[in-house]
């Protein structure tokens, strides 16, 4: 493949080096040489150590914790490639940070997802490849092409191989119903919804289960698991409604604060996530968390983007 893609080069920041290596293995290319370090005062130092003139550059970087450091790393790498005369720069962002701040929910607050989109565009990005955006309309914040990939294919395959047919897919809130309905249709499963009221950011209370979950295996579906408050309370409500057992499937394992402890203490039998974000040490030792890789999916999207083939056909 290297001969066929001689103008194709892949680089990575420090956010998720393991995923970057997996993607490169699928692509059959070596990871580009770059120094991504910090000066003694904390400023980020970038130095590209190979020629990228007139080449298609792909930068793999999730803007996960530490969010601001990883975001600035990505912006500075893109600027370095632009100044090195790269032909086209594609930011491959498996997890797009600040995506939850996609609208004004109160007076005098920023729309952070839009600001990050502007920063990426101004820095020199020509295209963005990302995965499971918190809200689809974030694609409209960009003035450049955005490919929003879906981990559904990987997750659905796992569910089919590891769960019986007596399934019900549960949306943790009204906003996730469309995603849950699509999963339920492809799995030929029933659908249920959690009636949830959020008192404050990262604080949620599951109120009731809408739909029949009695004597079924319930799978709660969400785009991310952050503090796991929603998941743990939803699992409790589902068990009280008569479900046989409860699992969760989430694309992005943010797992901040008390998340792992909540998962361990909850009614959840397992939490299936992807490797868009590397697990912290505590999460790595949690027997309930199962990680699926999206490296082949992202790698294939990168190949199709380079060749000018359809990316959408990956999900048809």
Strand and helix layout:
Elements: E1 8-12, H1 17-27, E2 34-38, E3 44-48, E4 56-60, H2 67-83, E5 88-93, H3 112-123, E6 127-131, E7 146-149, H4 152-162, E8 167-171, H5 177-187, E9 190-200, E10 203-210, E11 217-225, H6 229-240, E12 245-253, H7 259-265, E13 268-274, H8 281-284, E14 289-292, H9 295-307
Parallel strand pairs: 1-4, 4-5, 5-6, 6-7, 8-9, 8-11, 11-12, 12-13, 13-14
Antiparallel strand pairs: 2-3, 9-10
Write out key terms for the chains shown.
316 residues, alpha/beta, seven-stranded mixed β-sheet, 9 helices, 31% helix
Please provide a written account of the structure.
The chain is an alpha/beta fold and 316 residues long. Helices cover 31% and strands 28% of the residues. The protein is built from nine helices and 14 strands. The strands form three sheets. A seven-stranded mixed sheet has the order 10-9-8-11-12-13-14, with helices on both faces. It has a five-stranded parallel sheet with strand order 1-4-5-6-7, with helices on both faces. Helix 1 (17-27) packs across helix 9. The longest helix is centred in the N-terminal third of the chain and has 17 residues, at 67-83. The two termini are 25 Å apart.
């Amino acid at each position: 493949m290297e001969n066929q893609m001689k103008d194709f080069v892949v680089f990575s920041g420090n956010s998720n080096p393991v995923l970057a290596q997996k993607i490169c293995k699928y692509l059959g290319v070596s990871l580009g040489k770059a120094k991504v370090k910090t000066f003694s005062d904390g400023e980020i130092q970038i130095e590209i150590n190979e020629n990228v003139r007139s080449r298609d550059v792909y930068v793999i970087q999730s803007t996960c914790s530490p969010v601001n450091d990883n975001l600035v790393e990505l912006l500075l790498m893109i600027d370095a490639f632009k100044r090195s005369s790269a032909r086209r720069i594609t930011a491959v962002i498996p997890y797009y940070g600040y995506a939850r701040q996609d609208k004004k929910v109160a007076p005098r607050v920023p729309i952070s997802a839009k600001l990050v989109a502007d920063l990426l565009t101004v820095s020199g990005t020509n295209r963005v490849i990302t995965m499971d955006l918190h809200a689809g309309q974030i694609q409209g914040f960009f003035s450049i092409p955005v490919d929003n990939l879906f981990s559904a294919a990987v997750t659905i395959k796992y569910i089919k191989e590891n769960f019986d047919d007596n399934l019900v897919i549960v949306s943790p809130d009204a906003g996730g119903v469309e995603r849950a309905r699509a999963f339920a249709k492809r799995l030929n499963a029933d659908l249920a919804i959690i009636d949830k009221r959020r008192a404050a950011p990262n604080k949620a209370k599951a109120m009731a289960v809408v739909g029949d979950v009695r004597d079924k295996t319930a799978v709660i579906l969400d785009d991310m698991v952050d503090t796991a408050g929603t998941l743990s309370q939803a699992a409790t409500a589902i068990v009280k409604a008569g479900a046989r057992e409860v699992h969760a499937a989430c694309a992005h394992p943010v797992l901040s604060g008390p998340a792992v402890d909540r998962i361990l203490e909850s009614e959840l039998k397992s939490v299936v996530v992807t490797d868009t974000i590397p697990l912290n040490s505590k999460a790595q030792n949690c027997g309930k968390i199962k990680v699926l890789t999206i490296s082949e999916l992202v790698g294939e999207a990168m190949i199709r983007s380079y060749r000018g083939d359809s990316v959408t056909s990956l999900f048809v």
